[in-house]
Design goal:
By secondary structure, the protein is an alpha+beta fold. It has one domain: Alpha-Beta Complex (Nucleoside Triphosphate Pyrophosphohydrolase), CATH 3.90.79. Helix content is about 25%, strand content about 35%. Strands 1, 2, 3, 4, 5, 6 and 7 form a seven-stranded mixed sheet that branches. Strand 5 and strand 6 form a beta hairpin. The longest helix has 13 residues. The chain is globular and about 35 Å long. It starts with a strand and ends in a 6-residue tail after the last helix. The model has no long low-confidence stretch (mean pLDDT about 90).
């Protein structure tokens, strides 16, 4: 059996970052929490295709993948690849399994993201958003 793969996108536009708030009635572990968007890679999709599909479904915008940041494995064995992306537009349209989407400043990302969501961030992402700094 092939290992499950996922992608997460740090989507930036004019020094603000895309956040999504998972639907409160969701049965997932991030229910009601703000988080950095991510997507499960389906079938033969490339990471780039999964990010493009996921961000379009969740926020209604196109993105351009700029660079790979890091990878980590979740406690359930899913390989997650993190990418820095540029937004192809700013007009967000909430969709998919979210109840809200928004642009947030660097400090707002940390303040808004839920504790569960932040606990899933690899070290490189924690450092990017200042997690653990006072």
């Amino acid at each position: 059996m092939e290992r499950k793969r996922a992608v997460a996108a740090i989507v930036e536009n004019d020094e603000k970052f895309l956040l999504g708030k998972k639907r409160s009635d969701s049965t997932g572990m991030l229910s009601g929490e703000w988080h950095i968007p991510g997507e499960t890679v389906e079938g033969e999709e490339s990471d780039q295709e999964a990010i493009a599909r996921g961000i379009q479904e969740e926020a209604g915008i196109a993105v351009k993948m700029v660079r790979f940041i890091c990878s980590h494995q979740t406690s359930k064995g899913t390989l997650v690849n993190w990418y820095f992306c540029k937004a192809g537009g700013t007009n967000l349209i909430v969709g998919s399994d979210l109840e809200e989407v928004r642009w947030a400043t660097l400090s707002e990302v940390l303040a808004l993201s839920g504790k569960t969501a932040r606990s899933l961030w690899p070290k490189e992402i924690q450092e990017m958003f200042g997690e653990g700094k006072k």
